[in-house]
Amino acid sequence: MRVKSSSSLSRTLEKSVPATKMSRNGISSTQYRSPFDNWYTYSTVHKPLPDFTCETGLVLFPPELVPGVGHPLVGKLGDHAVRRLTMRKLESYNEFTEKLEYKAVMAASIKIAQNPSAFGLSEQAGREARLIVTDESHHAYVAIELIKQIPGFSELPPLTPSQPPFLRGLEELERDLPNEFADDLLIAFVSISETLITSILRGIPRDRRVVSAVRNTVRDHCIDEARHHSYFVYVVHQHWASIEPYRREILGPLYAKLIRLFLDPNLDLCRAWLIEAGLDPSDAEFVLQDYYSPERVAAGIRADSFPTLKLMERVGVLDYPTARPAFVEQKLID
């Protein structure tokens, strides 16, 4: 099964939006339409592992998505530094995938499976959350298997272990919320992560510059994520429709913070890569400021979050008085 182009994928996702109706509290609600009818046929957990071929002369990751690659200061360090940075980027992407699946998506899906009505979801949606747990466990496994197959990765020295910013951010947000909001926060964050369509998912499967191992792995992930996107569109609708007004006052602004939390670059990690590649700290900082200029970061976040922002608009989140100013403050909308 070929991954759809970004425009074709977007059309498919638009068609998957559940039918709307009005909930008892007057907020738009939706009817569940299962995206998993063909799960036993098309889910990648039922297929062989992707082809992990790494062709000579191809890159491990699109150069424009690797901080520092193409910058004159990095170019002076030579091809070895460029390859090291590219390997670190791929390593980071796969480790992020593993932690996101284990620590967030699977945890949220298990909560949904155990008590779907707590989030306004149907009993069928609760049952099928277990399929997402299975899919995401497989994605985490394949992400780490891919790293093991890349020539030279075993020779990379380990960087100092650190907690991903999204986990630290979730912990900080949770500390500032009443205890009763812990599950709402997790479900909201995972709904954000599963409805975004990042530049990596959009572009890598069709990028012939990239080795087959990476293209095939991201392609398989994208196939499953199209179904998960449809599912979590329904979750956002129902979660928002089912909660009391005072909870919407808190949850609305949180959505804006969670989008930035998921998409903001990990500058500390990128700085460590640049210094490891051979730049001194001041040059590394200069390269970071150039690559991650405020304008570039804001444009990238708006592009990646566009489907989710449209969803927030459809659901009515942006109509809530406390929400829109938060989205403006986070530079997600004007």
Structure description:
By secondary structure, the protein is mainly α. The protein has a single domain, classed as Ribonucleotide Reductase, subunit A (Orthogonal Bundle), CATH 1.10.620. Helix content is 63%, strand content 2%. The chain has a two-stranded antiparallel ribbon. A hairpin with a 5-residue loop joins β1 (20-22) and β2. α4 (79-114) packs across α7. Mean pLDDT is 90; it is low at 1-17.
Summary tags:
334 residues, mainly alpha, Ribonucleotide Reductase, subunit A, two-stranded antiparallel ribbon, 14 helices, 2% strand, globular, disordered N terminus
Strand order of the largest sheet: 1-2
Q: Could you describe the largest sheet, including whether it forms a barrel?
A: 2 strands, antiparallel
Task: Give the termini distance in whole angstroms.
Answer: 39 Å
**Computed structural class:** mainly alpha
Short description:
This protein is mostly helical.
Strand and helix map with partners:
Elements (H helix, E strand, L loop, with lengths): L5 H10 L4 E3 L5 E3 L8 H4 L29 H4 L3 H36 L8 H27 L15 H11 L6 H14 L3 H5 L8 H31 L2 H19 L3 H11 L3 H11 L2 H22 L7 H7 L5
Helix pairs in contact: 4-5, 4-7, 4-11, 5-9, 7-9, 7-10, 10-14, 11-12
